[in-house]
Each structure stands twice: as structure tokens, then as C-alpha cells.
Amino acid sequence: MRYTKVVIMVVASCFLVALPAFADIVTIDFGTGSAGTGGTFTLNSPNATGTGIPIQTVTISGALTGDGTYNVAGSCTGSNGSGFGCLNFDTLNNRVQITGDIPGLSIFTSELLLKGTFVSWNASVNGLMDATGPDTKATNLLTALSLPTNQPFAYFGFSLTTSPISHNSIISTDFRNTTVPDGGFTLMLLGGVFVSIEAFRRKLRL
After folding, report:
1. Are 99 and 111 in contact (CB under 8 A)?
2. How many Å apart are CA 202 and CA 114, to the nearest integer?
3. What is the mean pLDDT of residues 82-105?
4. 206 lies in a domain?
5. What does the alpha-carbon distance between residue 124 and residue 170 come to, in Å, rounded to a whole number?
6. Number of domains comprising the chain
7. How far apart are CA 31 and CA 58, in angstroms?
8. Could you tell me how far CA 5 lies from the centroid of its own chain?
9. Residue from 16, 91, 60 nearest 179 by CA
10. Considering only CA atoms, which of 41, 107, 96, 49 is closest in space to residue 74?
11. Cα(47)–Cα(36) distance, rounded to whole angstroms?
12. Rounded CA separation 203/193 (Å)
């Protein structure tokens, strides 16, 4: 009986360890790129707001189609020019958004590319660090990457750094987020674990 329990535990562990391998993780990383310094950062500790922060690049990896680095265009201005995508956030009112277009992915009209909320963050005069939370993406962006249009995402470690001179403008931004494994898919795999365990137990009783 003890041997049976050990084998069952091993089988279950193998399934659970292998679980992440079945779920492809897609990463979408928005950043400053070559836009330079821009936008406005306002600290009202523990909260902060950021408006008109230029976003020039997005890097995609792990998608079925569309992996690569692309220019993000829009209405925001940086010290190196204009026509960049825009990042706006407000921790007090619990929102973060990125707007713009990505011609390299056939998104030629400026739209809301990302919309999210905050779960945690750390704000100071030096910027916003280690912000986390859930977000969703534009349908056109998800379609270009061959992802379901209702695919949930989460960001971990969204950070931006203020100018060491004024502390009210942004010199660097990194907004990296990944797909969240579908709950139904996870339950299906866990169901497979228990089915396999039960089949093994029956076999031992024969």
C-alpha cells in the first residue's frame, strides 16, 4: 500500500512539473526605445501618475506569428523626436494604458493597445518600480499574433525611471507582460492527473 502511494505521488508530481511546458508563454514588452526623455511624472506618495510617456518599441516573443521588435507610433513626444506611442497611468484611480499603432503588425490606426489595472507598485521620486497587475490587449494586436481575442495577460515588474535632474520626466520605461494560462486548460490537465492515478490504482488491484 505504501508503494502504491509513493508511485501515485510521483505520477502526480510529474504531471504538475510538466504543466508549464504545455502552456506557451507569449511575452509582449513595450519600451522607450530611441524616443528619449519625455512625459510627465507626478508623485503623491504612495501613489503616482504618468502622462504622455513616449513608447517607441514593442518586442514580442513566443507567439505563433509576429515575433520580433516593432516601432510603436502615436501622438507622444520625446527628446529625440515625436510620433511615438503613449503610456499613461494613475495608481490612485487604478489604470494604465498604452495607445498607438504598430505598422509592422498591420495596425495602421492609433488605438488602445493595452489596458490594465494595478495590484502592487512602488513609487518614489526616482520613478515607478516593480508594478504588477492584469491587463488586456487590443483585438487587432492579438489577431496579428494568432492569439485568442480574449487572451488574458499580466505584467510583472513594470518600471520607469525619472530624470535625475528634474524627477518629473521619464528617461526609461519597461512594460513587460506575459500571457496567463487559461484556467480551463489547467483544470483539464489536473483532471488528467487524477484519471491517470485512478487507472493506475485499478491496475494494481487486478
Report:
1. yes
2. 50
3. 98
4. no
5. 13
6. 1
7. 6
8. 40
9. 60
10. 107
11. 24
12. 16
11: in domain = no
DSSP for residue 126? T
Tell me if 115 sits within 8 A of 105, measured CB to CB: no
Q: Which residues contact 96 (CB under 8 A, 6 or more apart)?
A: 87, 88, 89, 90, 114, 115, 116, 117, 118, 131, 133, 135, 158
How far apart CA 65 and CA 143 sit, in angstroms, is 9
In a domain, 6, yes or no: no
Directed axis angle between helix 2-22 and helix 183-205, to 10°? 150
pTM: predicted TM-score of the whole model, two decimal places: 0.78
Q: What is the pLDDT of residues 110-138, one digit of tens each?
A: 999 999 999 999 999 999 999 999 999 99
Residue 24 DSSP one-character state: P
d(CA 206, CA 202): 7
Q: Are 59 and 29 in contact (CB under 8 A)?
A: yes
Whose cell is 519600451? That residue is 31
Place of cell 525619472: 162
Q: 89 is in which domain, residue-wise?
A: 23-183
- Write the single-letter amino acid at 156: F
Closest CA to 74 of 99, 57, 97: 99
Question: In this prediction, what percent of the chain has a pLDDT beyond 90?
Answer: 72
Cross-strand pairs, 48: 43
What per-residue confidence (pLDDT) applies to 180?
86
Grid cell, residue 123, equals 513609487
Tell me whether residue 10 is in a domain.
Answer: no
Cell readout for 194 is 487524477
Q: Which three cell numbers stand for residue 39?
A: 512625459
CA–CA distance from 115 to each of 8, 62, 129, 135, 144 (Å)? 43, 21, 18, 5, 18
